[in-house]
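Blinded run. Sample ID left blank on purpose so nobody reads anything into the name before looking at the predicted structure. Input follows.
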Amino acid sequence: MKSQDLPPNTEDMPNMEADCFQATDFGQLQASITSERPKILLLYGSLRKRSFSRLAAQEAQRILEALGAETRIFNPSGLPLPDDADATHPKVQELRDLSTWCDGMVWSSPERHGAMTGIMKAQIDWIPLALEGVRPTQGKTLAVMQVCGGSQSFNAVNQMRILGRWMRMVTIPNQSSVAKAWLEFDDDDRMKPSSYYDRIVDVMEELMKFTYLLKDKRDYFTDRYSERKETSAEFRKRIDQRSM
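Blinded prediction complete.
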């Protein structure tokens, strides 16, 4: 008998609900990978007419589509500040619908005052952890990028990583930070050949790989002992009430 076929040994764990504790299911991990196109949502963090975070996101979009993804870019213009409108606002609804639609995301922000922009944070703040019983970001993939006005920095991507983890997303290891972004785009708003461009290609390739791996296994990877335990307790309570 294979080790993964054996039930977990909980004899020395008195706090454990044995019926809710599960060994790793190798069959779930090795399930076939879908050929369906991954859906990727791209967010950017500047409203300037020539926004370099938007231009970087558009370059990422072109790469993702060449790799077979279906993509959408959300335009944050008109999105109200968090709590300055309710969730019925059209731009809030648009953003939330896109966050539910996608299998993964790309966040591209300028670094301003040593941090991601308020525009970037506002978009993330409008995406709830739970929406009508569904967690719109849980188990979905995330790639983070930033553009810098001066020398290369990583403050914005580091902050976005924290937020991605908070949103229960799978943030891929690779990331992109473009120094002196105003030098990296030509007059047609296309990125020039450079190591910075190559890194964006690297990041998008990695995002696609992780998204393919997780797309149809998201429910398994986000299945938790604590939630199984809670569900089991609720089920037992219903059964006990019926027997009264």
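Unblinding after everyone has recorded impressions. The chain has a mean pLDDT of 90.
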